[in-house]
């Protein structure tokens, strides 16, 4: 009987410990920030290129592709189930898709393309950040 009780107690402690650890891990989920930091880096590289007037077509395409694929992680990673949030994330993906298709090759077309992208970042940040 004592052995059975000890085993049960061990199980209960184990389960409690696991849920606690999982809670701590969830609270420290680094993914939302990681996704945003990655997008911030690529947007930063694009605006540096614009400022330096060095708009290399291959580099532009690389940063746009990274932005586009990273943006698809926003909704699954943030887990914010509000229509306005998912709409804005979708809007960002649409703008990035269109920009990639337009394939800007110089600073003037890049500047025009990047504007609606930056505005979408801003509009979601104003509401959710
Ligand atoms: C659908 C909503 C949404 C869109 C679109 C969005 N963001 Fe964010 N972003 C957030 C939220 C929410 C936070 C706050 C995250 C946190 O503090 O955990 C954030 C935070 C950030 C941060 C700060 C990260 C940190 O370490 O605190 C950066 C940088 C960033 N976003 C860049 C961007 C860029 C660049 C774009 C556009 C290409 C973008 N975001 C588009 C919702 C969005």
Could you characterize the architecture of this molecule?
With 129 residues, the chain is mostly helical. It has a single domain, classed as Four Helix Bundle (Hemerythrin (Met), subunit A). The protein is built from 6 helices and no strands. The longest helix is centred in the first third of the chain and has 26 residues, at 2-27. The termini are far apart. The mean pLDDT is 90. The structure holds heme C. Heme C is lined by residues 32-33, 36-37, 39-40, 43, 67, 74, 85, 88-89, 92, 117, 120-121, 124-125, 128-129. The site of heme C has 20 residues, from α2, α5 and α6.
Short description:
With 129 residues, this protein is mainly α. It is built from 6 helices and no strands.
> What kind of assembly state do the chains in view correspond to?
single chain
Ligand roster: heme C
Low-confidence stretches: none
Kindly estimate the percentage of residues that lie in beta strands according to DSSP.
Answer: under 5%
Provide the residue-averaged pLDDT: 90
Number of strands: 0
User: Which CATH first-tier class would you pick?
Assistant: Mainly Alpha
Q: What order do the helices and strands come in, and which of them pair?
A:
Elements: H1 2-27, H2 31-52, H3 57-71, H4 74-78, H5 83-102, H6 107-128
Helix pairs in contact: 2-3, 2-6, 3-5, 5-6
């Amino acid at each position: 009987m004592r052995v059975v009780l000890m085993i049960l107690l061990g199980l209960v402690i184990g389960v409690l410990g696991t849920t606690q650890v999982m809670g701590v891990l969830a609270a420290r989920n680094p993914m939302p920030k990681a996704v945003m930091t990655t997008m911030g880096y690529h947007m930063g590289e694009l605006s540096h290129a614009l400022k330096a007037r060095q708009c290399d077509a291959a580099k532009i395409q690389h940063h746009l592709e990274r932005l586009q694929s990273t943006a698809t992680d926003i909704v699954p990673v943030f887990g914010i189930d509000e229509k306005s949030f998912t709409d804005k994330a979708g809007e960002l993906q649409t703008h990035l898709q269109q920009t990639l298709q337009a394939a800007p090759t110089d600073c003037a077309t890049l500047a025009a393309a990047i504007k609606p992208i930056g505005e979408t970042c801003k509009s979601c940040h104003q509401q959710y950040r």
